[in-house]
Amino acid sequence: VYPNPTKGSISFANFAKGSSVQILDLSGKVVFSFNVLNPVEQVELNLSKGLYVVYANDEHSATYMQKIVIE
Q1: Distance in angstroms (rounded) separating the CA atoms of residues 63 and 5
Q2: 13-34: pLDDT as tens digits
Q3: Is 30 exposed, middle or buried (0-12, 13-18, 19+ CB in 10 A)?
Q4: Which residue in 48, 49, 20, 51 sits closest to 33, CA to CA?
Q5: What is the pLDDT of residue 61?
Q6: Is residue 66 within 8 Å of residue 6, measured between CB atoms?
Q7: Which residues contact 19 (CB under 8 A, 6 or more apart)?
Q8: Beta 40-44 vs 9-13: how paired, if at all?
Q9: Quick one: pLDDT at residue 5?
């Protein structure tokens, strides 16, 4: 997941096709979600400045979690 911090546009690389990605605010509310369709996905996050958590899982139950900062 890069760049981090970001001003809003973020890329997701090396996620398995079909992985489910969710972005949560610090209260645990899902504020953005999508399913990975390509080896590199770039998305525009129209979120307020702050700290968020990226949570992803694939069909094999592998999980990924990372904090991101929106400037």
Answers
A1: 21
A2: 988 888 999 999 999 999 999 9
A3: exposed
A4: 20
A5: 81
A6: no
A7: 35, 36, 56, 57, 58, 59
A8: antiparallel
A9: 96
Give the span between the Cα atoms of 45 and 67, in whole angstroms. Answer: 14
C-alpha to C-alpha distance for 57 and 52, rounded to whole angstroms: 17
Q: With contact defined as beta carbons under 8 Å apart, do 9 and 45 qualify?
A: yes
Report which of 9, 31, 38, 33 is spatially closest to residue 20, judged by C-alpha positions: 33
Total residue count of the chain as it appears in this document: 71
Non-local (6+) Cβ contacts of 2 within 8 A are: 10, 11, 13
Could you tell me the pTM of the whole model?
0.88
Other CB atoms within 10 A of residue 48 CB: 9
Tell me the mean pLDDT in the region 51-62: 90
CA angle in degrees (0–180, nearest 5) for 4-71-37: 50
